[in-house]
Design a protein that fits this description.
Length: 218
């Protein structure tokens, strides 16, 4: 079920706005009660994202806990993202796209080889981006800390045979998803560099992150 919901927040009142070029990584802390908006600036750009408890990165986003609790495989407004300790990490409070993938995973040298061709092994990938961001941050995290991710704006339906199909996205320029942090979280992003499937029309594009402060009631 896709639940669309407009935001009431004004970008002019935001604490920070950051534009991330196509194919690049980003690591940022979002405090409890703050709201993060991810904007698909040009449409159908996959934003591969992992969340960690900023105080204890052994606690991270859990696709199994999240999907079991909500009873569905796609995220939209009203969804809550849970950790591997069963605690709410973020709540989706606004969404103008309505379809965000939880099963397709992040592209890597191995998956590029299996899905596309042997010569695709050395193409830049989301896994590379994650590792670059963690290495640059010098916070003691590495490949052992990577877990299954959310693909914001990506459309990966499940086929009748139980497989996954990477399809054209349902997003469009200016569509966004907005998440309120339920704990202090580290947001690890790869603005997907994938050139081999139609999720981003074979053309990676930039995205924007907007962060607002906590409301008095948060």
């Amino acid at each position: 079920m896709h639940t669309l919901r407009e935001s009431t927040l004004d970008p002019a009142a935001a604490l920070a706005i950051h534009d991330l070029p196509a194919g690049e990584p980003w690591l940022h802390e979002v405090k409890r009660g703050q709201t993060l908006r991810i904007v698909d600036l040009e449409g159908n750009q996959a934003v591969d994202t992992i969340f960690y408890n900023a105080a204890d990165t052994a606690e991270s986003y859990s696709v199994t806990d999240t999907l079991q609790r909500q009873g569905g495989i796609h995220l939209s407004a009203g969804s809550v993202l849970y950790s591997n300790r069963g605690r709410p990490m973020l709540a989706i409070v606004a969404d103008t796209c309505g379809r965000h993938d939880t099963l397709g995973g992040a592209c890597a040298a191995e998956s590029n080889t299996v899905r596309y061709a042997l010569q695709k092994k050395f193409m830049h990938s989301c896994r590379d981006n994650y590792l670059l961001a963690l290495a640059r941050a010098h916070i003691g995290m590495d490949k052992r800390d990577l877990v299954p991710n959310v693909n914001f704006f990506m459309n990966v339906p499940v086929t009748e045979g139980g497989g996954l199909s990477f399809e054209d996205g349902l997003s469009a320029p200016g569509k966004y998803v907005e998440l309120r942090a339920e704990m202090d979280v580290l947001v690890l992003v790869s603005n997907c560099p994938q050139l081999n499937n139609p999720c981003n029309a074979y053309n990676p594009t930039p995205v924007r992150f907007v962060i607002w402060g906590a409301s008095p009631s948060a």
